[in-house]
Fold this sequence. Notes:
This protein is 81% helix and 0% strand. The chain is mostly helical. It has two domains: 2-52; 65-284, MetI-like fold (Orthogonal Bundle), CATH 1.10.3720. Helix 3 packs antiparallel against helix 4 (113-127). The longest helix is centred in the N-terminal third of the chain and has 48 residues, at 2-49. The model has no long low-confidence stretch (mean pLDDT 86).
Amino acid sequence: xxxxxxxxxxxxxxxxxxxxxxxxxxxxxxxxxxxxxxxxxxxxxxxxxxxxxxxxxxxxxxxxxxxxxxxxxxxxxxxxxxxxxxxxxxxxxxxxxxxxxxxxxxxxxxxxxxxxxxxxxxxxxxxxxxxxxxxxxxxxxxxxxxxxxxxxxxxxxxxxxxxxxxxxxxxxxxxxxxxxxxxxxxxxxxxxxxxxxxxxxxxxxxxxxxxxxxxxxxxxxxxxxxxxxxxxxxxxxxxxxxxxxxxxxxxxxxxxxxxxxxxxxxxxxxxxxxxxxxxxxxxxx
Length: 285
């Protein structure tokens, strides 16, 4: 009898997880069906109701003109190469400057307090200023000093403006990653005879940087979009080129084309950042 009862309990315990898994799978399927139906309903409503608006024909002609799109889209792609180039040389400078500012803010030795004060002032100032305002001040102010070529180039000073602003945000993200490393890590490194510098280099920073990769990826996605703001001081990148085409064709379709180019780059990057974030959260759990 004892053997039979133990076998019954074992059978019940083995079937319980299976029933739970089946129930959860059913709940997920039901939720997915509801989400699909609601999404399709919204899409159908948009495609049915928007064309019924009185001004839809004028909007379609001004923003979704196929002839203008076909004529201008190749030129927009060529101009977007400049966006990518500015991003390519700005991103490493931002990463290095942000890391340096974060280390300044984390300086703990009394003799290094001026560096810590500088890091605090830097992040407070450049996180408090709009990007476009910094671009205007530096992009028009520095060349106004009468510097010879190439030192009056808007590419140089526009890049500097982006580096100054985004380094402040990256520095704060890295500093949060440094603060997330438990004090026991530093204590263990000290017990092994590592100096404060080696502890930061070999123990704290590798963990901190790995923790903040998803957050910094979101900042660099925003940087790719804000490169377009440099058009205000001269560079003919995709946004400025869209404005040229808008004036040439008296049509806003080039702006839609520029938006599609940005989305083609930023949406995959955003999804990858979300993937890294979810992966990081699962590892923590």
